[in-house]
Amino acid sequence: MESVPTNQSWDELIVLGAYASFGFAVLILLYHEFRLLIIKDLKEKYDYINLHEIRYFWFAVIALIIGAALYSNAIVAKVFDVKGTTGTVIRVFYTLGFSAIAYYSLSSLVRILYPRVVERRLNKVRNKPRISPTGGVMRKLSEEEEDVHLDQDQIDQESSEIHSVDYDVWIDEKTGYKKIEKYMNYQHAEECSECGFTTMKILNEEIEVKPTANETGLLLKHYLCNYCRHREAREVVIAKLSTNVK
Questions:
Q1: Could you tell me the CA-to-CA distances from 199 to 19, 20, 224 in Å, in that order?
Q2: Cα separation values, 227 from 56, 113, 114, Å
Q3: How much is the CA Rg of the chain, to the nearest whole Å?
Q4: What mean pLDDT, rounded, does the chain reach?
Q5: In what order do the strands lie in the sheet with 165-171?
Q6: Where are the domains of the chain?
Q7: What pLDDT, on a 0 to 100 scale, did the predictor assign at position 245?
């Protein structure tokens, strides 16, 4: 006849589950950092951080919440000596309540504070000197200098208010080797006018008035805050169409 698991054995399993969750959280962060480590190209590293860092961090936070809920469950059960069916129900509701409160609290922190951490990391990677294939340290050109190295389409994209793009031009002045990197400005968060956190991004854009050779146009940018869900629209004037079309 099989023995029925005791409260002590259940508590041991719950604690092991908590340790497993903590370990999984650490493994997620280590995996993310390892992926970053093996990406040598700084632009590729920038794109990887921009696309994945907050997601991996949030996965680690969820694993941490699960681990904390399980571990505290075992501790509370031991302190208050909850047993039987009533004790099981209490423990289940405690775990669910703890997880819900922790999830709500930490999700707010992740959505409010972590984007600033990511932005600082992105700026650091974006401005770190590039190395040319010959091993030379490259210099990032200023806005005034870089136009000489961009074609007309790239210059137009930078000056356009629609789906605005930014280009960085790096050059090895010894060899003349040049590298051009493209960045999408709409992917980055701005400060929300309602809650003040850096959690507002462009949701979509629409042209209200098309520009002509004689008249400027009008672009409407729709923003959404990922924290307080505040929405706002901003009007942007579109420059007249160039008449120097060949």
A1: 33, 32, 8
A2: 19, 10, 12
A3: 26
A4: 82
A5: 139-140, 165-171, 178-184
A6: 7-119, 129-186, 189-246
A7: 39
Structure tokens at 218: 């009008």
Residue type, 151: D
pLDDT in tens, 76-110: 777 666 666 676 777 778 888 888 888 888 877 77
- The residue assigned the tokens 């509370």 is 76
Q: What is the b/e burial string over 49-61, where b = at least 16 CB atoms within 10 angstroms of the residue's CB?
A: bbeebbebbbbbb
What Cα–Cα distance (Å) separates residue 35 from each residue in 8, 28, 52, 56, 171?
40, 11, 11, 11, 27
First CA to last CA across the chain, in angstroms? 91
How many Å apart are CA 42 and CA 129, to the nearest integer?
9
What's the token pair of residue 201?
A: 């991004």
CA distance 179 to 168: 8
**Residue closest to 227 by CA, chosen among 114, 79, 70:** 114
Q: What is the pTM of this model?
A: 0.70
- Collapsing DSSP to helix, strand or coil, 209 comes out as strand
